[in-house]
């Protein structure tokens, strides 16, 4: 079975892909009624360029919402990479190889960005022309709390201690995530910015915790 047939077989299973746009194939020039995000020309089976300027949600074929389903996102990611992986194009034309490399790294970037609640939020703000200002005012007491948490993570020795801190911190991020979702839903971008600037601190603690978990060789 050709890659294309495989793809269309998969596509048929997912109604989210059932969206058509008209393209001209860069290779054979024919019009292609392309499923979005279909990857290949239906005439000559050549890989197509990613749609220019398409946002990461559309690129990944998931609904554009802050409450994106991480399992669905992961599934889409695997599906796309299955077809786009540059190894699959080793025997194809040079230009196809280059497109697959670019497309594949774009999909990696989109996946990474949408997977984490912080980067997803920042990305959605950017789609709305907003950014988190560098010098957001932060409550002094909150900063103290964060500094103390940092020290706790640094001095945590046992697996039990670090996993308890992990759980506590993940719960904080989860709670903020819910608030960000509501703020996006209500179109309150000022509040989104405020919440995400707080989430930044917990995301950095999370990084610290995950590094510690890895260095301690804890298997979860
Ligand atoms: Zn073609």
Describe the protein in words.
By secondary structure, the chain is mainly α. It folds into two domains: 3-115, Helix Hairpins; 140-215, Up-down Bundle (Monooxygenase). The chain is built from eight helices and two strands, in the order H-E-E-H-H-H-H-H-H-H. The protein has helices spanning 3-13, 56-60, 70-84, 94-115, 117-127, 140-155, 159-185, 189-215, and strands at residues 20-24, 31-35. The protein has a two-stranded antiparallel ribbon with strand order 1-2. Helix 6 (140-155) runs parallel beside helix 8 and helix 7 runs antiparallel to helix 8. The chain is elongated, with a radius of gyration of 21 Å. It starts with a helix and ends in a 5-residue tail after the last helix. Mean pLDDT is 86; it is low at 1-18. The structure holds zinc ion (ZN). Residues 25, 27-28, 30, 41, 43-44, 46 line the site of zinc ion. It holds the Pfam family HSCB_C. Keywords: Chaperone, Coiled coil. This is J domain-containing protein.
């Amino acid at each position: 079975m050709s890659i294309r047939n495989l793809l269309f077989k998969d596509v048929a299973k997912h109604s989210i892909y059932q969206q058509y746009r008209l393209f001209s194939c860069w290779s054979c020039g024919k019009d292609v009624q392309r499923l979005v995000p279909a990857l290949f020309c239906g005439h000559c089976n050549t890989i197509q360029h990613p749609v220019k300027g398409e946002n990461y949600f559309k690129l990944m074929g998931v609904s554009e919402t802050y409450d994106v389903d991480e399992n669905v996102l992961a599934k889409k990611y695997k599906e796309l990479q299955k077809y786009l992986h540059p190894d699959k194009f080793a025997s194809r034309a040079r230009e196809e190889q280059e497109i697959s490399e670019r497309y594949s790294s774009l999909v990696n970037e989109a996946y990474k960005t949408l997977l984490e609640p912080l980067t997803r939020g920042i990305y959605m703000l950017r789609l709305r022309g907003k950014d988190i200002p560098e010098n957001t005012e932060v409550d002094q007491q909150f900063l103290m709390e964060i500094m103390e948490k940092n020290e706790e993570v640094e001095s945590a020795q046992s697996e039990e201690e670090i996993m308890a801190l992990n759980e506590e911190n993940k719960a904080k991020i989860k709670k903020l995530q819910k608030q960000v979702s509501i703020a996006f839903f209500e179109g309150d971008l000022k509040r989104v910015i405020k919440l995400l600037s707080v989430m930044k601190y917990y995301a950095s603690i999370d990084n610290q915790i995950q590094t510690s978990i890895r260095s301690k060789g804890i298997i979860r």
